[in-house]
Amino acid sequence: MRVLITGATGYVGQSVATALAAEGHHVSALTRDPDSGRARTLAGSGVRLVQGSLTDRAVIAETLTETDAVVHTAYDPADQVGGERALFAALAEADRRPHVVYTSGCSVYGEHAHARLTSATPVDGGSVRAGLEAGLRDTGVPHTVLRPGMVHGGDARSSIVGAWFRDALTTGPVHRGRRDKVWSWIHVDDLARAYAAVLRAPEDHRDRVYLLADSQPASASAVVEAAARAAGSTAPVTLRPIEDENPLYRVFDRDEVVDSSPARAELGWAPRESGVIEALPASFAAWRTVGAPWISSPHAMPSDAAGG
Asked: Taking every annotated instance into account, which residue ranges of this chain make up the domain NmrA-like (predicted)?
């Protein structure tokens, strides 16, 4: 299958591109900078680079003429809707309508008190993510929506875990907001396998929504503590109010436990990687290798940017 991936040099996108190429798909990666290190890494694994962005209508239109599926993992925190709407418009106008695998997240539910989130749980109509999902549906393009839990693993470079590694090495470990909140988690490589599972038989999953997580929910406070220890910090965890958090993370100041049983049953998918706490030492080692620029930067994009 000929697959176009947006955000392919990002945290989730790179893992997805690698997984799809390994399965034998002909993968093209939309990237603003084909000379970047991550783009060159993808090219070395057989991924074709397409220079452009979501708002380059001519580039998108031309690429769609030879595309069977689009995997959308790109997210711009500075413009949460502009690029998405541009992509939706291009898809709606295309003569050839590929199957879209769209990355959403649990922020679609807004403030809630549900013990467990499912695809049938009502979404918050005021949520940006919920609005974008609706915009995709309105195009009439065949699609599947994936809503991951909190993403971890790999080099964690734009996950909340990466931000916690950075805290541990700079200010000292910090927990923001409710101490008792519990989240579902998913390793980035397990998430990539879910995209691959959809594309094995995309028509079987048309208009479906799947929540994705492992079976080991963990409290944010426990992961903050464990991330600090994996980073070598022995400092106590400082508690701060949620108002001290990056605005993009504040929406997660509550329990986020998801039911991924439909994905397991219908996609034939199951997590293979370690749970979040067990994965932290390897993730820190990978983050430290690529993550020096993140140490002095603001909080990275939340996992909701690629799920969560």
From this structure: 2-235
d(CA 194, CA 20): 10
27-70 per-position pLDDT tens digit? 999 999 999 999 999 999 999 999 999 999 999 999 999 999 99
- 2-150+187-212: which CATH architecture? 3-Layer(aba) Sandwich (3.40)
DSSP 106: G
Two structure tokens written together for 206: 């048309």
Q: Which residues of the chain have pLDDT under 70?
A: 291-308
| Domain boundaries defined on the chain | 2-150+187-212, 156-185+215-258+272-295
Architecture of the domain delimited by 156-185+215-258+272-295: Alpha-Beta Complex (3.90)
Distance CA 1, CA 21 (A): 10
Q: How far apart are CA 168 and CA 238, in angstroms?
A: 10
Coil vs helix vs strand at 300 = coil
